[in-house]
């Protein structure tokens, strides 16, 4: 099976899109981020070397199925629909949706203030679904705009076409830290709590690999490495469940 | 393969296809016209203008469309140019395509034998008539194929319009891909639609070519 | 330098009946001197034949007359008007605008050595084109007039052929028809009968004689001495870009020419044509 | 918003490193495109109906299917038939084979405008087909089609960015990644555009030099 | 149908010294009959001149001889070998492969009416090209031999010019040099002296006479009756695609020809050339 193959080679190949701060980033020409740190530790636990691949999102899933690599170590929001097609590992990050606004915009101070305003989010993301559901509950719904990439939503907010951007809380927080004069986080997060996991191919073949990785994640929960890594990048450590969360 | 996807997303995909075709046709036709004018000004216009055109051609042709579009759409508002996605899409398409077309036309101008232009001058045809009646019909022989090529390339460049949220084909297929977590199906749809456009463009190209090479067919 | 020459040239007397007057005209291609110091008058309604060895500059001279080739030094005047260059004293000279050039060229027809038909137009349209877009005839009037011109050169049955589907002589006749249909004041013919059979040469000759009678001025480059002898009012002999002589044909062909170059030139021809 | 030259300055070395991939793929792809494109064009114009048809099918396939899909096919589907190409080779091959279809068409258009008499003259002398192409048709076709060929090569440089889908960190990809971390897309994209421009401008200047050289008479 | 004719044709006797034999050959362009039922032999080392009015099919006949134009009916044989078509009884006939055609054409040189020089090569390379790629000479050997050929037509000084920078007559001489440098068994000339001055015509004539003496067979289309009279062993007269007569020149030019068509054809020529 997959795990024994990996052990035999002594190497695990992990693909991600190095384009999702602070989980996966390319900084100073090197791959860094929460997922990098975490997965490096996981590989140590498995006793194998790790090779990271950077792929655009549209070729990550075909590549996984074609066996070009063993696992996707990008943060993927765990949803019911996705679980049908792939195996997820235990949560490694908080994916609950939060808002960012343009720095100094006093008209938005809490999530409900987006009523009637233009809000951008990433196409097809779980956070977009949360945003839409939340918007329905408001007196006047927000004008929700969908972008292929979250960068473009942020750029459009900077250009003034939209007033807020919704995405996972860590990402929004990181953006605000990176461009403090430009973006500002809107607290608190809203909607259902959501989590990021890693993705392995579905089926028997990968079951043992997923189990082994889960074991490593649990161990890191216990010895505090998980918390330490999260604190290093986010300043705080989120509460992460140690069992697979129930999804609708 | 999940065929019910096609039914579920069918209407959205078709609308996306419509938007793609709109941007493609308007953008590339505009590009042809602007390119032709540029090529003419470059050839017959005053010297300094042709340097300007040279710079325009090299800069626009030399940089990626995605980046031009990004700068136009997201950078535009900083200088007071606020465009809607489709406006920005079509405008940037015209801007992006025109230098390529201009170069194709330039090669066409060069391909017409000098003697024929001299003959036209000798019977007193004006430069404009010479362009329309002598140069253009003949230059279409070598340039119809490159023109068709570039129309085909532009069909695929429409995909880039998705970065400014133009609800075109790729944008819609990505919605489908992201929401359903599928990849083969969206690519199939995408390929099929592009292929349709390419077939259309090739067909038109071959018709034009047959028309303009009529005189070369020996009995 | 060129300007110097030009000014000198124009001070010479020009006979009042000259329609074209060439003064000390010269033309070089890079470092090859194709024409040097040509001075020549063509009178109204005159037929002037240009003969001379291959490469002597006959075509180049014709092409300078309507400024297809920009001559370097000297002057070419049509009815007193300087051809091609702006008639002001400036150094270097500046060429006329395209529009002005076009007006000048409308009075000067030309039949090219290589015909230069437009391959994408039928024989008829090759002839009709300028009638429509220069003379302003309607397309159908233009075609009618073109048909007449083609009939003159016996090509009515090939009017709808594209040039590629015409024989060499037929192409040449289309080129002739295209030029004469425009009824210019001066016609330049560059070997107009090179591809024609003797019979047709006779016909074209007749057409040209008619045109001459109607007052058209013609400059004809030809290698057919018989043609020159029968058509020309005067024959000019060019050699290596220089005008050797310019005399009535009787003088050139009738008696043994003085110039040794002309003598050897004509010799082989005489031998061969005693059939 | 302030324009940050610092961001560009800091990240430029990484972008230049990435540009090396762009150049490698482009140059190798161009070689394939020009050589294979010439053969395709010859096939497309050949008298043999089968050869001609095959070339037409090839051209309509490679022009018809998006390059992205072709790349994914080369990389992900060829392994199923036992041909597991390394990413960089797959990228070069896909880019080159696709561009060849366009090159072939450009050359075909140009060759059509060469007067048939020139081919006849060669045939009458008994010049072999290969020499006819190499010495007579291709040099003239290149002269006529050069601006369009340079167009195509420049497009090839730009589509080399699609190599990112098989995991190659070329210029566009690295720029996007840097953007994802710095949140300064305008700066980074402008810098990337400048690098692309330089590469393409060199191409274009070379094209014009060749054009000058081929312009005779 | 074409096959029928072909079989008939080949049953006729072929004189054993004929190098080219044409039997009941015909060629049509769409519904225009350019050649009909041509039967003609060209003997080894013979110079055959083809004359006739413009559009009578002279060029087409030459082009059929080396299969640049695929003739429809009848046969053309070179040394007994069928040109162009596969020599089997099949209907419709199938053309030879390119390679076979090429081998056949290597023995048949041709100078085109419109020269068809390659514009991107210098005069020298135009001549050297086939020497290198057909005869297999090295490029420098090829160039040397090309230089010799150019010298024969007095063009040594223009060897490096591109065709566009040559005069009409110079272009024609390059075309002649290109063909004769290959030393084929049969040469087809399509109006090889149309752009040449009388003096050069004499020179080319000398070259051709030398070639004939060395045993080369030549078919020459020409409009210059003097040329035909002096060079030809026999003269063939074509009219509207039909072969009217094929006799020694003395018979055609010496006495009043029987055929009225030939008579009128020669008449204008005679008149004009009494200088
Ligand atoms: N564009 C050019 N560049 C360089 N040399 C040229 C050019 N055009 C013509 N020549 C040279 O100028 C000379 C005169 O050429 P021109 O065409 O006037 O000769 P011609 O008298 O018409 O000869 P022919 O009877 O053979 O047509 C020739 O030696 C030719 O090689
Ligand atoms: N490709 C073609 N399609 C149709 N008709 C053609 C074609 N080529 C030649 N013809 C016609 O066939 C006839 C014979 O042409 P050909 O070129 O053999 O004449 P020719 O005897 O060489 O005349 P010339 O002395 O004028 O060169 C002409 O009437 C011409 O119009
Ligand atoms: Mg000449
Ligand atoms: Mg002919």
TrEMBL record, chain B:
Residue ranges constituting the ABC transmembrane type-1 domain according to the UniProt record: 13-205
Record's bilayer topology term: Multi-pass membrane protein
Subcellular localization, as worded in the UniProt entry: Cell inner membrane; Cell membrane
Keywords: Amino-acid transport, Cell membrane, Membrane, Transmembrane, Transmembrane helix, Transport
Classification via InterPro entries: AA_ABC_transptr_permease_3TM, ArtM/GltK/GlnP/TcyL/YhdX-like, MetI-like, MetI-like_sf
Transmembrane segments: 12-39, 51-72, 130-154, 187-205
Any one GO molecular function term: transmembrane transporter activity
A GO CC annotation given for this chain: ATP-binding cassette (ABC) transporter complex
GO BP annotation list: amino acid transport
Family annotation (SUPFAM superfamilies): MetI-like
Coarse class of the protein's main subcellular location: membrane
Family classification: Belongs to the binding-protein-dependent transport system permease family. HisMQ subfamily.
Protein name (Swiss-Prot/TrEMBL): Amino acid ABC transporter permease
Native source organism of the sequence: Cohaesibacter celericrescens
From TrEMBL, chains C, E:
Molecular-function annotations in GO: ABC-type amino acid transporter activity; ATP binding; ATP hydrolysis activity
Start and end residues of each ABC transporter domain: 20-265
The keyword Nucleotide-binding appears for this protein: yes
Entry GO terms, CC: plasma membrane
Membrane topology: Peripheral membrane protein
Family annotation (Pfam families): ABC_tran
Superkingdom of the source species: Bacteria
UniProt keyword terms in alphabetical order: Amino-acid transport, ATP-binding, Cell membrane, Membrane, Nucleotide-binding, Transport
Protein name: ATP-binding protein
Species this chain originates from: Cohaesibacter celericrescens
TrEMBL record, chain D:
Compartments it resides in: Cell inner membrane; Cell membrane
Cellular component terms (Gene Ontology): ATP-binding cassette (ABC) transporter complex
Entry superkingdom: Bacteria
TM annotation in the entry: 20-43, 55-76, 88-107, 188-210
Keywords: Amino-acid transport, Cell membrane, Membrane, Transmembrane, Transmembrane helix, Transport
Membrane topology designation: Multi-pass membrane protein
GO biological process: amino acid transport
Pfam families on file: BPD_transp_1 (PF00528)
Signal peptide: none
Chief location of this protein within or outside the cell: membrane
GO molecular function: transmembrane transporter activity
ABC transmembrane type-1 domain boundaries: 19-207
SUPFAM superfamilies tied to this protein: MetI-like
Function: Part of the ABC transporter complex GltIJKL involved in glutamate and aspartate uptake. Probably responsible for the translocation of the substrate across the membrane.
Assembly description: The complex is composed of two ATP-binding proteins (GltL), two transmembrane proteins (GltJ and GltK) and a solute-binding protein (GltI).
Family as reported in the entry's similarity comment: Belongs to the binding-protein-dependent transport system permease family. HisMQ subfamily.
Protein name, UniProt field: Glutamate/aspartate import permease protein GltK
Source species of the chain: Cohaesibacter celericrescens
